[in-house]
Amino acid sequence: MIRVEATKARNDFAATINLVAYGRDRVVLQRRGKALVAIVPMADVELLEKLEDHLDLEDARRALANPRNRKRIPWKKVRAQLGL
Fold this sequence. Notes:
Blueprint: E1 2-5, H1 6-11, H2 13-21, E2 27-31, E3 34-39, H3 42-65, H4 75-82
Parallel strand pairs: 1-2
Antiparallel strand pairs: 2-3
């Protein structure tokens, strides 16, 4: 992982983006030595999304397996609870 000051990344934006897109490096942008954000390749983002989807599916299966969750809730009630 490469660490770059935010001002340097801003000044060399195209080079920073190319480093991530073509070099497959992860770049952490810092300000005064403190990490702020990261620029990562799309492959990393897609993997993270798949992992999140997998965890969400596990949570949903666990919730459905709980007998207390078998009772149906009318859509109107759900909308009212969510303020929709």
